[in-house]
Amino acid sequence: MVSQLSDLTYKYKIKLWGLNQWQTYDNLDLAKLSKVNLLFARTGFADKDNVAVADINKRCRDLYRADASEYFYQGYDALMYYAKMLKKYGRNLNPCLLCEGEVKGIQTNFKYGINNPKNGIENIAISIMQYKNNAIVKVN
Questions:
Q1: Which of residues 78 and 119 earns the better pLDDT score?
Q2: What's the Cα-to-Cα distance from 39 to each of 7, 10, 107, 111, rounded to whole Å?
Q3: Tens-digit pLDDT profile for residues 80-91
């Protein structure tokens, strides 16, 4: 389907919404995903050109002799966010997460809300990503 849509881009301006997992499929050509301007949602994205991301990656390389992974950035963001919130609110942290608004981390954004009262509060911040010129860029 993606191949067929990419063949139509000479005639139509196409933006295809898909899943983050699509980029891991061997049978999907990244050039074709770029051609159809694939958009997908992610919970986070580390911009390697960002100075803070580069600094953390350098420190990770110096300490562990390896580049920081997606999980490293997620852990870093979680530690920094929740440590700050615990310092600010102490044991009253849970209800106060709702009043904080969106906080942007190195990779993960935090914005708490209630989609279903039975489920409690949850992080509702997402990033919209797009394939453009054979690269993934953050749209929002």
A1: 78
A2: 18, 19, 18, 21
A3: 999 999 999 998
Whole-structure pTM value = 0.70
Please name the residues in contact with 48: beta carbons below 8 A apart, sequence gap of 6 or more: 54, 57
Q: Name 112's bridge partners.
A: 123
Could you give the CA distance from residue 16 to residue 139 in angstroms, rounded to a whole number? 14
pLDDT digits (tens, 9 = 90+) for 22-60: 777 777 777 888 888 888 888 777 777 889 889 999 999
Alpha helices in the chain (DSSP H): 2-7, 30-35, 51-64, 70-89, 93-96
Residues paired with residue 136 on neighbouring β-strands, in sequence order: 131
Structure tokens at 112: 């708490």
Produce one character per residue of 34-68: b if its CB has 16 or more CB atoms within 10 Å, e if not: bbbebebeeebbbeeeeeebeebbeebeeeeeeeb
Distances (CA, A) of 9 to 16, 40, 124, 132: 11, 19, 33, 14
